[in-house]
UniProtKB/TrEMBL annotation:
Main localization (coarse): membrane
Transmembrane segments: 12-33, 61-83, 90-114, 134-158, 198-218, 238-259
Lineage: Bacteria, Bacillati, Bacillota, Bacilli, Bacillales
Recorded superkingdom: Bacteria
PROSITE patterns reported for this sequence: ABC_TM1
UniProt entry keywords in alphabetical sequence: Cell membrane, Membrane, Transmembrane, Transmembrane helix, Transport
Subcellular location: Cell membrane
Span of domain ABC transmembrane type-1: 57-259
Membrane topology: Multi-pass membrane protein
Name by which UniProt lists this protein: ABC transporter permease
Recorded family membership: Belongs to the binding-protein-dependent transport system permease family. CysTW subfamily.
Gene3D superfamilies in the cross-refs: MetI-like
């Protein structure tokens, strides 16, 4: 295939990137330069560094870190177990299936599950623990977020585990290493690329969550995504909402090479 023909095949890709990636970012940056009355200003950027927005930024990073940590805590053992089961591809399909369900539907399902008359509270009452308010707090927000993001953490880790050369594990056992030592010194270092990919797939979207903060956390968890939604849909201050979005894009642009970087361990 000639170089010119290869260039022709790349045209749809470049058009897609320009229309649906570059152009929206440019528009967001443009709107961030205007106040609520449509006047050109840089005050939006100055307002972002006030305590209110800095607190939202810290809150966003804190909850994104919690969601990523608990997702990794559950996903790594799950992915490791999957590689040692029969019909592993079928099990992976069952894990991926919930990602095909609309996020709003899953949020409303958890409202029913964690609600006052839901099965969780019914189980607690049957156990003699009484009725508890499970919804509209930090716990429910992190729990539901972890449930939603776990498949995106499991998939890259599972693929990294599948790529490990079995002879390396056998050599570790032959040299007298226990299962735990083999996991810590051989398997985990060889799957760091999958761990980084999973963390990136979870941490970056978790920074901009807004629907779950309203439906599951009852607006008791405030993030940058919540601020963007409020400015665009409630206060109609598109300039400030765009400014928050610009900083969120910058944070993501900085985090992507950090989470996705690093030299892969040679097999």
């Amino acid at each position: 295939m000639s170089r010119n023909s290869r260039g022709l095949y790349l045209i749809p890709y470049y058009l897609w990137m320009v229309l649906f990636v570059a152009l929206p970012v440019i528009l967001v940056a443009y709107y961030s330069l205007f106040d609520i009355e449509g006047h050109f200003t840089l005050s939006n950027y100055a307002n972002f560094f006030t305590p209110v927005y800095l607190k939202m930024t810290l809150s966003s990073f804190w909850y994104a870190l919690l969601i990523t940590f608990f997702s990794l805590l559950v996903a790594y053992p799950a992915a490791y177990a999957l590689t040692r089961t029969k019909h592993k591809q079928l099990w992976m399909l069952l894990i991926i299936l919930p990602t095909w369900i609309n996020l709003l539907l899953k949020a409303y399902a958890f409202i029913g599950i964690f609600g006052t008359y839901g099965p969780v509270n019914s189980l607690l009452q049957a156990a003699g623990l009484g009725e508890h308010q499970i919804l509209f707090n930090d716990f429910s927000f992190v729990f539901v977020s972890v449930y939603i993001f776990i498949p995106f953490m499991i998939m890259p880790i599972f693929n990294a585990l599948e790529d490990i050369n079995p002879t390396l594990i056998a050599a570790s056992r032959d040299l007298g290493a226990s299962s735990f030592v083999t996991l810590r010194r051989v398997i985990f270092p060889l799957t760091l690329s999958g761990v980084r990919s999973g963390c990136m797939a979870v941490f970056i979207p978790a920074l901009s969550l807004f629907m779950l903060t309203r439906l599951i956390a009852g607006n008791k968890v405030i993030t940058l995504g919540t601020a963007i939604e409020q400015h665009f849909l409630v206060t109609q201050d598109w300039g400030m909402g765009s400014t928050v979005a610009v900083f969120l894009i910058l944070f993501m642009a900085v985090l992507m090479p950090i989470l996705g970087g690093g030299k892969e361990v040679r097999r």
